[in-house]
Here is the input.
Amino acid sequence: MSLASTSFDVPDMGDYAHDWALVDVETSGVLARRDRVLSVAVITIGPDGGQTGEFSTLLNPGCDPGPVELHGLTVERLQGAPTFDQVAGRIGAMLQDRVLVAHNAQFDYDFLAHEFARARMWLPVSQRLCTLALNRQVDPPTDDMKLGTLAAYYGVPQQRAHDALDDTRVLAGILRASLREAARLDLPLPLVTCPPRAESQFTPKPPKTPCAYRNPGRLTPGEPLQEGMKVAITGETAHARAELVGRAVAAGLNMMSSVSRHTSLLVTNEPTSDSAKARRALAEGVPVIDEHTFLRLLADVRPGTAHEATAVVVAPSTEPESEPIVGTVDLAPTTTSAAPALAAAALPTAAPGAGVPAPRRPVPSVSTSDKPLAGRRVLVLGGIHADAAAARTRIVELGGSAAINLSASVTDVVLLEGGEGDRRMSRISTLGLPVHDLHWLTAPTAATPAAAAFRTQEPRVMSRGGVIDLPVPHTQEWYVTAGWAPQSGYEIDVVAFLLDEDEQVTFDEDFIFYGAPESPAGTVRLLTGGPAEQTIALNLASLPPATRKVVIAAAIDGAATFGAVGAIQIGAAIGSSGAPLARATLDGATTERTMLLAEIYRRGPDWRLRAVGQGYDHGLDALARGYGVDITD
Here is the structure.
């Protein structure tokens, strides 16, 4: 199949016209820093949609090809193929000065970045576009966002799934159709800036063995060390730093690279040092001892308390076990130790005198038995933020889903004061969508939306505080995606904290953020789908037993607040292209600069997801310190 004669068939492509390099890779595994590319295909397309080039090849990775049953690339088939460094120049020439396009683009981009780094070359890509992220914005009425599903929906023929060249040709058809839909809906393209990356910048450090013991708190003068204590070292030491760390880890201590209020002690031979760790220890009141004292105390470390086992005993529940449940829960603190998963949301508590403002707690929506907006997706335009937030809350109470952007799945529009002047109104009129005033939400019509007929199952609608049981087994990756209305003037960073039973990170690498986007073992990753979408991907089955909860939060850079951002939508799905199991629209923020979006936590042997929507006025650094990590070092 050739795309040489095709065009995008859009009257005025405008911002949608670029030189594109469509890419697909087949790989020996899923971790770019560990696994290798087995085959690669690149198709270049001009702004008018006409194909300008095509290249594909098998590659000899020099390692086991991995899941042959999936990609069909055996050792015999790859024998005699070129190595990546032999074709890197040709691939780089096709990528140069073009926007890289792929389905789940960060996956392909990361693999290419690692392969180029191994070949001691730069990956010549400055922007990328993910057709998954683009279609999440378009939101076609498909059951999932898999390449084959979208191909069938858009009428693109697919001949050989998991063949790099055929997948790239299919991708070209999907890109063409997706851009046409984006132009029809006047959606901005989710282009991601890709700065040059060096090996040292994107290769995670080797995995660190998590400490098996709970943190017993700070060292008391004259008392012995205890297993699980969090210890940091700063300044010059007589013994090699690696030797000190090794002896401490062997003794059951938890060695940290930064100081926080949870640090048990700081080891330094320079107590008046002006290092960041020493300053933080002084500010937090962390005990400070010298190297000689530390070595003496290492000779007699007292037993600690092991982390709780994965399974915990829970109180009898009347909740149905046959299917996932969605509802609201009481967010007030509970004293029932038998059911820790139903306690209040994880709130970092400030040290005395720290002056950390209390969070704004969400108020769960009042449930109703009448759900006339079930299956409807309603976009609210106009009004001040408080009024728009109240309207979206009412939509959820009525069983509907509150949209944050115009998409193909929007069934209704509610206009508040000033909404008539929204630039999207012309598109809404062209699309023929029903437009209502605020009074419609008091008694909405119950007509079945046309878009629902194309989907076999709509995502569960969760209100703030709502909880859903995640289906078992937990062997697949879960993707929790946060999205917001694209705007200029601010940047939002989505982060994740892996917490133990004491609501603390076990070690520094349990904080996933833009500076460390992947845990050492690759079980939790931060993915960027565009300037208004970020995802936390996590493999629940591979999380350390000490991890009781994963908190997903967002922070806004600079002086801006979430009141200017408006609603944030989160969705949870199995796999990068899976259909959302649940979706929540988190609203009502005003002056907050950080926001807890969701929690995934253990409940006995199972996992649950809670939509939180809880804000703080302080920044990300204060939020991180509350969980036991300092991001300023």
About this structure: The chain has four domains: 14-202, 230-298, 327-342+463-626, 377-451. The CA atoms of residues 100 and 128 lie 4 Å apart.
